[in-house]
Amino acid sequence: MHDNQPRTSTPDTLPEVITRYLTAHRAHDTATAITAFTREATVIDDGNTYEGTEAIREWLDRSATEFTYTIHLTGAQQTDATRYIATHHLEGNFPGGTIDLRYQFTLRDGLIERLVIEP
């Protein structure tokens, strides 16, 4: 396998920092979730960009209370040495009621430097 080809991963082979973030996010544990990010991290979600841990903390707090939903990890992939994609299926009281989202992580120094969430 060439180093630049995506590799399918199982959820239990995702890096600890991604698993920590995903577990904390599902539990609405903002204090733990924020520890997974670098201080200069960027999150892009629903067309909005959040830069730095304070903006990300506010986004996490808001997303935890805005809608009620269930989230299930349905797949994982490592695309290169620092990039991973975790695919999730969400069901809840948000517009549309169901959606599959790709959480695209970029890591730096063992933490999340960038997270892009999109269909």
Automatic annotation (TrEMBL):
InterPro entries associated with the record: NTF2-like_dom_sf, SnoaL-like
Pfam families, alphabetized: SnoaL_2 (PF12680)
Name of this chain's protein: SnoaL-like domain-containing protein
Recorded superkingdom: Bacteria
Gene3D superfamilies: 3.10.450.50
The organism of origin for this protein: Streptomyces glebosus
Domain named SnoaL-like: residues: 18-114
